[in-house]
Amino acid sequence: MATPGTERRKVGSSTGTAGGSTKRASGVRGSRQAAAGAAGEPKYHERALLRGLQVLTAFTVERPEHDLGSLSAALDLSKATLVRLLDCLKFAGFVEVDPRSGTYRLGLRAFEVGSVYQQTATLDHIGRPVLSHLAEATGQSTNLAVLDRGQVVHVSVVPSPRPIRYEGYVGLREDAYCTGLGKVLLAALEADAVEAYLRQATFRSRTPNTITDSDALRRELAEVIRRGYALDDEEVSPGLRCVAAPIRTAAGTSVAALSASGPKAEFEGPNLQTLVEAVTSAAADLGARLGAASRPPTGRAL
After folding, report:
1. What is the pTM for the complete model shown?
2. Residues in domain HTH iclR-type (predicted)?
């Protein structure tokens, strides 16, 4: 029979060994985590995002549909993990489920994201010659932009060849409600999307001409739809005017807008009509180069 002292030593020895093992195991995990961080391996939530993206890339032209089993085999992921990932992707519209077969395929949201990339990746390359020609023909600065989260983003800019000119730059963001480019792009949205924009928009008075309320913007967008182009009448900067027109896809959807900007005095009277014709013609030219339809779509005019 062991003495009390011996029991205490054994307990202490056992605890110390267990504690040492725990510390060593913790140290190994810590070393692995540190090494993973040093190697750039994503953290847990980032890994979950990457797995979701891997699910999307499993759908190809050769294999547009998958059932749970084929996805699990293709990605080497458990079905339980896949169900959670697919539920998230389905909720966001990136995958759809065939109710009869239970197979999965890419959803409309994936198509929309791919379409945005396809259009914007080629816009600058194909659009720059059109902008350059328009700038040379009109003597004004020319711009190409898309709509992103309620703002206009310039994807291509060609400055006027003259010393006094509007200065923009690629990547410039501007509020949509007070720019010609923005009004063209807003006018192309469905009515519910316009209302969603109006609910979150913050109207700031940039000049005495800036539109500062929802009703006035609704009227302005209706006018843009009616005439097929938009004007910025000193709404961003005093003395600066702009004419903008939509760039349409083959389906008739506006994916971008093109504009010419310059001094107010050169956007009045007969000059204004000449600029409108030049801008709308350049927009149709760029639409044709992008493979877009030259005819206006049915429904909303933009």
Report:
1. 0.60
2. 46-108
